[in-house]
Each structure stands twice: as structure tokens, then as C-alpha cells.
Amino acid sequence: MVDDPLPGHEAYKGRLAIPYITPSGVVDIRFRGMGNEDPKYMGLVGAKTTMFNTQACFVGDRYICVTEGEFDCIMMSVKTVHPTIGIPGANNWKSHYAKILDDFEIVIVLADGDAAGLEFGKKISRELGNVNIISMPEGEDVNSMMTKRGSEWIDQRIRECITNG
Predict the structure, then answer these.
(1) Handedness of CA 42, 43, 44, 45 (dihedral sign)
(2) Which residues sit opposite 15 in a β-bridge?
(3) Helices vs. strands in the chain: H and E counts, helices first
(4) For every one of its 165 residues, what pLDDT tens digit does the chain have, with 9 covering 90 and above?
């Protein structure tokens, strides 16, 4: 949580700082509001949107999970054993990400339970032939479902995708 922002970064006060870490170090930081702030997410001025938690691409074996947003990816990384990357928002999928995920036998998209989430899953599915979409219930996302039902709820659905290929 940003309690004492650097000069010029006062807009991030009270937000959760989410660092984008790669082997070369921190390459970006995004800031998430923890209440009803608008916008929910903020980025550093001039920063380019990239894939979050890219390290999962190197530890994933047969499959990898994709979430819409960093916070859902963090929840997956902390509460499950499934390698997971995050795309910072449904509209931020870039076609070159397909090249990164193409080597996985199975790509599991954990889509938010709204129209944007469904389109996010479909967009990835159009670019990759190895996609399984797990849609969250209406109005829900990975974080809210883990909070309401526990990680076992998502775990079970991912295991079904892995087993059924």
C-alpha cells in the first residue's frame, strides 16, 4: 500500500502497488484502488502495458492459466499451484502474446463473469487453438470466487481442463 508517495506520485496514495518483476528487475508498477476508486487501476505515465507474472511461462509445463488483471493472477499464484499470467484488462491482450503461449499444450483462460471477460476469452481462443475458457459466474472474477468459494472451486475446474485436454 502506498502510504508515503514520492513527489509527483500523490495520485497513488492509498493504492496497492503491483510491481511487474522480470529477471532483470522491476520493469513497471501499476496501482490498484482497494475500494471504489475510479479508475480502479492506474499506471505510471508513459509505461507500456505488458503481461504480468511472466515467470510463470518458464515454470509452466503442459498448461498455463491466464487471468484478466494482475490481482486475479496474484490470487492464483498465492492460493493455487497453477502457473498463471495476468493480462492487465480485457482490452490489453496483444496478438504477440499468442506466440509466447503457443508452446503450451493447454491454455486456460479464467474469464471474468461479464461481457468483456467473455470477449477476452474468445479473443485469445481465436488466436490459439489450445484454449479452454472457464467463465466466472455473472459479476464475479477469480478473486471474488476464491473469497466466496475457496480456491478449490477454481482448482476443480482447472483440473477438469487438464484431464480432458
Answers:
(1) negative
(2) none
(3) 6, 7
(4) 899 988 889 999 999 999 888 888 888 888 989 888 888 888 888 888 789 999 999 987 899 999 999 999 999 999 999 999 999 988 899 999 999 999 999 999 999 999 999 999 999 999 998 999 999 999 999 999 999 999 999 999 999 999 876
Q: Which set of grid coordinates corresponds to residue 63? A: 498448461
In degrees and rounded to multiples of 5, residue 84 shows phi and psi of -140, 135
Q: Strands, DSSP E only, in the chain? A: 16-22, 25-32, 41-43, 63-68, 84-87, 106-111, 131-135
Residue closest to 90 by CA, chosen among 73, 63, 67: 67
Alpha-carbon gap, residue 143 to 18, rounded angstroms: 15
Q: Which residues contact 1 (CB under 8 A, 6 or more apart)?
A: 14, 15, 16, 17, 34
Neighbours of 127 (CB within 10 A): 18
**Domains along the chain?**
10-43 (no CATH), 56-164 (3.40.1360.10)
For residue 39, cis peptide bond before it (omega within 30 degrees of 0): yes
Identity of residue 40 = K
